[in-house]
From TrEMBL:
SMART domains: GAF, HWE_HK. Residues 1-31 are annotated as: Disordered. This is histidine kinase. The lineage of its organism: Bacteria, Pseudomonadati, Pseudomonadota, Alphaproteobacteria, Sphingomonadales. Pfam families: GAF (PF01590), HWE_HK (PF07536). It comes from Sphingobium chlorophenolicum.
Length: 695
């Protein structure tokens, strides 16, 4: 980019014919910017095509407008624009700052490293306005009065900061801050585009030299917006804001008399916006004039408020987690979460409730109240509270009611709110899991209340944490219960194994205690083990370790191919036997079945077998089982067997000993009849009687 350091250089170049011809070919750059001043001509006649900005016809409107205002002013002003901070200044700057104008059109900080406002540029690019003292050493004439440099952000069409506006202001005498100078319309436009408020006031004193009022000599639009003082220029404060805070007069009075600047803050500027103010003296001391620069601090206060709210939220959630962590009962967790949140929000009632699987009812097991209202414990039909409201809850949207008696969504269902405690304001958030509404956390107030976004966000967090804690407690409880049942099951299994081994040893001893055919005894032993196995299968099919009597009998008959029919009849009510009774009765039925297959009703043609049982109460109210095995039509039965076998010993001795049974085994003409009567509820805890070793 070919630029010239000063106006005479530009003029000399304009006298060159070839350069004049190129000027004619540049179109828009020949027309803009207008005006006959030197810096306007410099912009028009420079070759910007190779600069970071490109040809002038492509410059953004915000840059062109700012330059139009700046170049037409008689007061010292400059502009830094773009990422490289390209430097522009008006004619008034020539002869004021020795270090600036040689960098015209170039990156400022590369060409003027000693620029006095360098340290403040990053602040301005972040959106702040900064006032910097200008050292006399950088002034072209060190006899000039003390100056300050006002650096303000310049925004583009999208509101982003793209430049820095520099304004030189003399603390007294000539300059921008001297209210005696006329302000042109163009400069007033530049004055009013500043984001920061700026005004010049004259402090009025009473006879005792106490500040009594201020006269607004000049203010920009941002000043009026921040203070709420509309059309203030040319008027006094007391003329339109007679009750304004006295601190304004006191601060302006001190600055005017002491000639020392002061900074103050007005965080509660209602109905206008809060601001940070910098007041400094201008003009001659006798003029009592003060310039005031205002910066909008609403974003900062909002950020601070959000930060504090976030800190309070985190502190509360940490306290909530610490309180819920040691609790093992889901109901205790619900109650603790409600108590903590209700007290934190200053509510009247707070709680956690669960929705049934059908989504029709909402149950509050435990909640918290402030003492000013009743508990909401109970089960409620959800749609009683208004279909419009519950429809939102079912889809996962929050419920916000500021006054249930005035909310049009609750018209016609006010009675439901009266039944639920008559509270006026409700904030509730639903918990959705896998697309289903499963729970809800609510907070309520007895009087109308406006719920804040901060309270809503906190309620969502508390609801999720409470649900997680409740589910954790339930899983842990289920795990503990499972472990307990496992220990019981292992203990029961060990007990059963010992019993089975004892029974097996007893059966083995009874089977082989007499001499006989080894193969036949082995068959007997195998059959008896199979009978024990069948009874164990039936027992282990239920969690309670019980066996159905009818299934026990049918399994045994099926093992030999027998079933209901003309020959076999089975009848009786449902009866559940404990494992010991099942083992012993199973062996007894096995012995009776084996005998019937070999010698009795299941062998003889035309014979029949009736198996039936009843359950009755004895005189003491105890349930008694009476089981009968009745064979008929067997041609030849010995009514006086030659020896007592295992089956007879089991029925007549082992069952009474182990089960407290009364048994009777009859060998009659036509077949065997056996009856067993035993208590169902309290079977003695005994083992089969083992044989005495007589060796």
């Amino acid at each position: 980019m070919r630029l010239h350091p000063n106006v005479p250089g530009v003029r000399r170049r304009l006298q060159n014919g070839a350069e004049g011809q190129r000027k004619e070919q540049r179109g828009v750059s020949r027309i803009w910017p207008g005006g006959a001043n030197g810096m306007a001509a410099s912009v028009r006649d420079a070759d910007w095509a190779e600069s970071g900005l490109g040809p002038v016809e492509g410059w953004p409107p915000s840059l062109r407008q700012t330059l139009d205002n700046l170049l037409s002013q008689p007061l010292p002003a400059a502009l830094l624009w773009g990422e490289n901070l390209l430097y522009f200044h008006n004619d008034a700057y020539v002869g004021r700052l020795a270090l600036l104008h040689p960098a015209f059109g170039r990156p400022l900080l590369e060409n003027s490293p000693d620029f006095p406002g360098r340290s403040a540029i990053n602040q301005v690019l972040a959106g702040q306005t900064v006032i910097e003292d200008v050292p006399r050493s950088v002034l072209m004439n060190e006899d000039n009065p003390d100056c300050v440099m006002v650096l303000s952000p310049v925004h583009d069409e999208q509101g982003e900061v793209q430049g820095v506006l520099l304004t030189l202001a003399a603390r007294s005498g000539e300059g921008f801050l001297n209210a005696r100078l006329p302000i042109s319309d163009g400069y007033r436009a530049l004055f009013n585009v500043l984001d920061e408020g700026f005004g010049v006031v004259e402090v009025l004193f009473d006879a005792d030299r106490c500040p009594s009022d201020v006269h607004f000599m000049e203010v920009n639009a941002a000043f009026e917006r921040l203070t709420g003082f509309g059309n203030a220029a040319g008027r006094t404060m007391r003329a339109f804001a007679s009750d304004h805070d006295q601190h304004w007069y006191e601060i302006c009075g001190r600055v005017a008399l002491s000639r020392r600047p002061e900074r103050f803050e007005n965080p509660d500027a209602a109905p206008a916006r809060p601001y940070d103010a910098y007041a400094f003296p201008i003009g001659e001391p006798r003029q009592n004039r003060v310039a005031i620069l205002l910066r909008d601090i609403m974003p900062r206060l909002q950020a601070e408020a959000a930060l504090h709210a976030n800190e309070r939220r985190k502190t509360f959630l940490l306290e909530l987690s610490d309180s819920l962590r040691p609790l093992a009962d889901p109901q205790d967790i619900m109650a603790a979460a409600g108590a903590l949140l209700g007290a934190h929000l200053g509510a009247d009632r707070c709680g956690y409730g669960e929705v049934d699987a059908a989504g029709d009812h909402f149950t509050v097991v435990r909640d918290w109240t402030s003492g000013r209202t009743a508990s909401a414990r109970g089960t409620y039909r959800i749609d009683d509270f208004g279909l419009k409201l519950t429809a939102d809850q079912r889809t996962g949207r929050k419920l916000v009611i500021e006054d249930a008696l005035a909310d049009p969504r609750t018209q016609g269902v006010e009675s439901a709110y009266i039944v639920a405690g008559g509270l006026r304001a409700t904030l509730a958030v639903p918990l959705m899991k896998e697309g289903r509404w499963i729970a809800c956390f609510f907070v309520q107030q007895g009087s109308p209340r406006t719920w804040t976004a901060e309270e809503e966000a906190l309620l969502w967090d508390v609801a999720e944490r409470t649900w997680a804690a409740v589910e954790r407690a339930r899983v842990e409880w289920a795990l503990r219960d499972s472990e307990k049942r496992l220990r019981v099951a292992v203990s029961e299994l060990q007990h059963r194994v010992r019993n089975i081994l004892t029974v097996v040893r007893s059966v083995f001893a009874r089977t082989f205690d007499r001499r006989g055919d080894q193969e036949e005894m082995a068959d007997h032993f195998k059959g008896r083990l199979d009978a024990l196995a069948r009874s164990q299968i039936v027992v282990t099919q239920t969690a309670a370790g019980t066996a159905d009597l009818e299934n026990l009998i049918r399994d045994e008959l099926m093992s030999v191919g027998a079933h209901d029919g003309p020959q076999v009849r089975i009848e009786g009510p449902d009866v559940l036997l404990n494992s010991k009774a099942a083992e012993s009765l199973g062996l007894a039925v096995h012995e009776l079945t084996t005998n019937a297959v070999k010698y009795g009703a299941l062998r003889a043609t035309g014979a029949s077998l009736d198996i039936f049982w009843t359950v009755d109460l004895d005189q003491g109210g105890q349930r008694m089982l009476t089981l009968c095995w009745d064979e008929q039509g067997v041609p030849a039965v010995s009514i006086n067997p030659g020896h007592e076998g295992f089956g007879r010993e089991l029925i007549e001795e082992a069952l009474p000993y182990r089960l407290g049974a009364e048994t009777k085994l009859e060998f009659r003409g036509g077949g065997i009849r056996c009856s067993i009567a035993m208590p169902l509820d309290m079977a003695p805890n005994r083992q089969l009687k083992e044989p005495v070793d007589e060796r």
